[in-house]
Design goal:
acyltransferase; mainly alpha; transmembrane helix; transmembrane; HGSNAT_cat; two-stranded antiparallel sheet
C-alpha cells in the first residue's frame, strides 16, 4: 500500500506567501506607478520582486522530494512516475501558452495571425520544463549526483555566458540584446515569439532555463534533507540555516564577477536566491512545524494549496472582465480598468498608493475565492 507523502505546513505557508506576492506584483493599478521594491531590477541587481519566481521554483523542488520520495528507490515505478510528471508538465506549459495567446480584445482578434506572434516562453512554461527535468533527475540520480549536477549547471552556464563568442556580434557579453542567451532565443524562436516588451530577448529564455533547473534542484536537496526521519529537527534547522547562509554569501561573492541578474538567471542569482529561500524555509519549519506557532499561517496556506490555479485564473480574469466596456469620462474602458480608475485612482492623491491599494484589493479578492474553495476542500491539482 502506497504511503501518503508527508506534508509540511511550513512549505504550504511559504508557497502561499510566494504566490500571493507574485499576484501582488503582477497586478498593480498602474504599471507607471509602482514602488521600487514592487518592480523588477532594471537589469543587474535584485529587488524583493525578483525573489518571487526563484522562490517558487525552489518550492517546486522541495515538493518533488516530498511527493516522489517514496518512489525514488522503487525503480519499477519510475516509468509511471515520469509519465505523470510529463502530463503535468504539458498541462502547465499549455496553461502558460493559453495566457500568452488569450486576446485582450476579441474585436480585432485573428487566430492565425496571433499564432504567428504568440510568446512561447513564459513563467508557467519555465515551471513546466524545470519541474519535468528536475523530477527525472531526482528519480535517477543520488543526492551526491544531484549536487554535482547543480555545480555543472551553474559553472557551465557561467562559462557559456562569459567565454563563448556571440554569433553575428562578437565577444561574449552580458548585455540585454547581445548576450548568448538572447541570440539563441532569436535564432530558435524568432523575435515574433519572444517577450513583447523587448522582442529581441526573453527573461524566460531557453538558455537561462539551465540555471533555473539548478534553483529547483537546490529545493530538491533541501526537501530530501528535511524528510530524513533519523535527524533531529534542531539539527536539520542548524544545517539548513548554515547551508542557506553559505549559498547567500556565495551568491554575493560571485556577483562581483557574474552579476546577480534575474532576466539572465545568472549563477550568482541562483545561489543568492536559493540561499535566501533555504533560510526562510528553515526558519518557517522551526516556527510552524516544530514549535507549532501556526495561527498566522491560514491565509497563506489557503493560497498555497491552490497556487497554480490562482496564478492562472488571476492572469486570465482581468482580460475577460476588461472585455466588457464601461463609459468613463467620455471614453470606453474595460470594466476592471473602470474599477481601478473610479474606485482607487480617484480615492488617493498619491498615484503610487492608489496603484498599491488596487493590487492589495486584487489579492484580497482572490483570497476570498480561495478561502471558500479551502473550506469546501476544493483543491485543483495541476
Amino acid at each position: 500500500m502506497e504511503t501518503k507523502p508527508q506534508r509540511l505546513l511550513s512549505l504550504d505557508f511559504f508557497r502561499g506567501l510566494t504566490v500571493a506576492a507574485m499576484i501582488l506584483v503582477n497586478n498593480p493599478g498602474s504599471w507607471a506607478h509602482i514602488y521600487p521594491p514592487l518592480g523588477h531590477a532594471e537589469w543587474n541587481g535584485c529587488t524583493p520582486t525578483d525573489l518571487v519566481f526563484p522562490f517558487f521554483l525552489f518550492i517546486v523542488g522541495v515538493s518533488i522530494a516530498y511527493a516522489m520520495g517514496s518512489k525514488r528507490e522503487d525503480k519499477a515505478t519510475h516509468g509511471n512516475t515520469i509519465l505523470k510528471a510529463l502530463k503535468r508538465a504539458i498541462t502547465l506549459f499549455l496553461l502558460g501558452f493559453i495566457l500568452a495567446f488569450f486576446p485582450r480584445n476579441f474585436s480585432d482578434f485573428d487566430f492565425m495571425e496571433s499564432l504567428k506572434t504568440v510568446r512561447i516562453p513564459g513563467v508557467l512554461q519555465r515551471i513546466s520544463v524545470v519541474f519535468f527535468v528536475s523530477s527525472i533527475l531526482f528519480l535517477k540520480l543520488s543526492d551526491k549526483r544531484l549536487f554535482q549536477t547543480i555545480v555543472v549547471l551553474l559553472f557551465g552556464y557561467w562559462a557559456l555566458m562569459n567565454f563563448v563568442p556571440v554569433p553575428d556580434f562578437g565577444p561574449a557579453n552580458l548585455e540585454k540584446e547581445t548576450n548568448l542567451g538572447a541570440w539563441l532565443d532569436r535564432t530558435l524562436l524568432t523575435e515574433a515569439h519572444l517577450w513583447k516588451s523587448a522582442k529581441t530577448w526573453d527573461p524566460e529564455g531557453i538558455l537561462s532555463t539551465l540555471p533555473a533547473i539548478g534553483t529547483c534542484l537546490i529545493g530538491v536537496l533541501v526537501g530530501t534533507y528535511l524528510k530524513k526521519k533519523t535527524i533531529e529537527p534542531a539539527t536539520k534547522i542548524a544545517w539548513l540555516f548554515s547551508a542557506g547562509t553559505l549559498l547567500f554569501i556565495g551568491g554575493l561573492l560571485w556577483d562581483l564577477q557574474f552579476p546577480i541578474n534575474k532576466s539572465l538567471w545568472t549563477s550568482s542569482y541562483v545561489l543568492y536566491t536559493g540561499g535566501l529561500a533555504t533560510i526562510i524555509l528553515s526558519l518557517s519549519y522551526w516556527l510552524i512545524d516544530v514549535n507549532q506557532y501556526n495561527r498566522f499561517t491560514k491565509p497563506f496556506v489557503v493560497y498555497g494549496v491552490n497556487a497554480i490555479t490562482v496564478f492562472f485564473l488571476s492572469g486570465l480574469m482581468p482580460r475577460l472582465v476588461n472585455m466588457f466596456k464601461v463609459d468613463f469620462e467620455g471614453e470606453k474602458i474595460g470594466a476592471l480598468n473602470y474599477v481601478n480608475k473610479a474606485w482607487f485612482a480617484n480615492s488617493f492623491s498619491n498615484p503610487l498608493n492608489a496603484s498599491l491599494a488596487y493590487a492589495i484589493a486584487f489579492v484580497l479578492f482572490w483570497y476570498i475565492i480561495l478561502w471558500v474553495m479551502y473550506k469546501r476542500n476544493i483543491i485543483i491539482k495541476v
